[in-house]
Amino acid sequence: MPAMKDKFFSDDDLWKRFKSGDRSAFALIYQEYTVYLFQYGFRFCDDREKLKDIIQDLFVEMWNSREALSEKVMIRFYLCRSLKYKLLRANYQFRSKTGRQHQYLHEQPATITESTVEDKLIDAENNACRSVLLENAIRKLSRRQQEIITLRFYMGFTNAEIADLMHMKYQSVSNLLYNALNRIKETLQTSPLTVRLLETLRVFFI
Amino acid sequence: MEHFNEETWELIQDDTFIGWVLFPDAESNSYWERWKAANPGRVEVLQHARAAVLAMRDLPQPAVPQSLLQEVYANVEERIATGREDTEISVEMTPIGRSVPFRWIAVAAAVMAGMLVVSLLVRRNTQLPAMAQLESRMENDKMVRTNKTGERQVAYLTDGSTVVLQSGATIQHQSFFVQPQREVYLQGGAFFNIAGDAQRPFVVYTPKVAIRVLGTSFYVKQETDGHITVTVKTGKVAVCSRTKQEESHIVTPDHQLRFDPGTQHFTDAAISADETTIPEIPVMHAKDFIYEEEPVNNIFKALENAYGIKINVNEAVFSKCNITTNVSGETFENKLKIICAAINATYRITGEAVFIQGKPCN
């Protein structure tokens, strides 16, 4: 019977089924997580086609080697970690072939410009403003700080998993996150619009 | 510089807190409810920390076009299908999840198409007329059983559970011999009496809701307009919407949960008069599996029909074997054990079928 993805199926169950050769369990895995892999991958690689190829290969290799994989994994973490290693390898191969740097691993340029932020602010409801203010504050963070915010609060990774993904010591994860949050707070406090949007501050820092 | 609130920070550092906010389930909900009760002074901090985490979760993420995702799914599907899996019987495993309602239509159509074949498989059996009427066939690797009669019919499951199918209802499931979970897809109404097995939870899926069972009996009613009611007789079940899985509801005896397909909400419904009597095993089934000097070949056929499991047996060998036994309260495998012991035969369960071997009786 095909596995069904819902909260009743823990990662453990799904993984077990996948490992035993249940193709529908595997379909659930790639249908659930491909979007996260792209979102994570876009951080390092803006070549959409290349990223797509790498993600496809990742899943096919994962299926073919399913029996050899660990008994228990956090699937989302396992996939993001595998993707990062694949990207690193692809980047290394590209560099040694062409002598050029950073084809697949690079600093993602900020996608939101000041003007769009202001446009949004003018139009948006209070609630939406709050998120735009926060977006704006995030944009002022360093790349690593932005990355940790996504890994922690969007992907939901544990501190240990983040340490692994970002090649950091456990304590450094905590410091990086703490600094990122303080920086967000500072930005929000100094924003001229914040006065009108006290709610933002209240939510963030009582 | 004013630093980040210390108490908020403590929560944001806590992996279990983040796990609860982002992926809540019944267990973490109850943990943090208890936490709130034990720390009334920190409830406000908790709420703010939660709001902050959710605000950051909801920040815009890079857009991933649906077409790009579909390309990946198709590519992966094709490559693993043409890989070394080719040697297996290649039944297409339709991805489930959101597409399940459509799948049901396909299954229903397949059931209809298969009826001719089925009528050949269903043996006439004077001893057990009722059981022979349950239409059963294999759909991919799943057993599909449909109650085509106007009466309630019993489908026996190999783990010892029974399902009383209302007229027109269908269940679809695997044999449960080796699966780590016991899962049944239900269309229509049915009364479930589930054999307890702490190692293997029992889950009933309808197109809209999922019901998780922990050894209990309960009734599922699906109306044509999409309303679903779950009534519990004994034990308790957890029900959640297939789309909003974080919203799960516990149903206890004498309570009824009703799902509204329009609002996608659950409400506690009063048990109406016609539902106070939950349909149980019909009287005509009370004598199932009680035999007196019964040819053992008939018993194997009866088991085959009742459980939907193919039993391979050389009828010529056992043609002279008659036995008297009562195996009604036993699981499928225990029934096999008892019967085989009586005729000095052995049984073997492989995949989805049973093989019987032995010598002729005198």
UniProtKB/TrEMBL annotation, chain A:
PANTHER family the record matches: RNA POLYMERASE ECF-TYPE SIGMA FACTO, RNA POLYMERASE SIGMA-70 FACTOR ECF SUBFAMILY
Family annotation (Pfam families): Sigma70_r4_2 (PF08281)
Entry GO MF terms: DNA binding; sigma factor activity
Organism of origin: Chitinophaga solisilvae
Domain of life: Bacteria
Protein name per its UniProtKB record: Sigma-70 family RNA polymerase sigma factor
Entry's transmembrane regions: none
Gene3D superfamilies assigned: 1.10.1740.10, Winged helix-like DNA-binding domain superfamily/Winged helix DNA-binding domain
Family label: Belongs to the sigma-70 factor family. ECF subfamily.
Keywords from the named record: Sigma factor, Transcription, Transcription regulation
GO biological process: DNA-templated transcription initiation
InterPro entries (UniProt xref): RNA_pol_sigma-70-like, RNA_pol_sigma-70_dom, RNA_pol_sigma70_r4_t2, RNA_pol_sigma_r2, RNA_pol_sigma_r3/r4-like, WH-like_DNA-bd_sf
